[in-house]
Design brief:
single chain; 77 residues; alpha+beta; YefM-like fold; three-stranded mixed beta sheet; 27% helix
Length: 77
């Protein structure tokens, strides 16, 4: 997928809110350093994961919260 726009790092930092609004509307923005692409701003996508007969809904936001049981097992809490 080709970017709708390429911006340098300074422009991305200065106009991040505007760029995110463009991404929210479906555009893809590439951030470049000295003309070399280093990152893409793309719309968030919720995914469905199918493993055998198991069908899971996957969303990056689900991974942000800590899991109490995992934390306990790892001694993090």
């Amino acid at each position: 997928m080709e970017a709708d726009a390429v911006v340098n790092i300074h422009e991305a930092k200065t106009h991040l809110s505007r760029l995110l609004e463009r991404v929210r509307s479906g555009q893809r923005i590439t951030i470049a350093r000295a003309g070399v692409p280093i990152a893409d701003l793309v719309p968030h996508q919720e995914r469905s994961v199918v493993y055998g007969e198991l069908d899971l809904d996957y969303d990056d936001d689900d991974l942000r919260d800590s899991d109490d049981e995992v934390s306990r097992l790892l001694g993090s809490r």
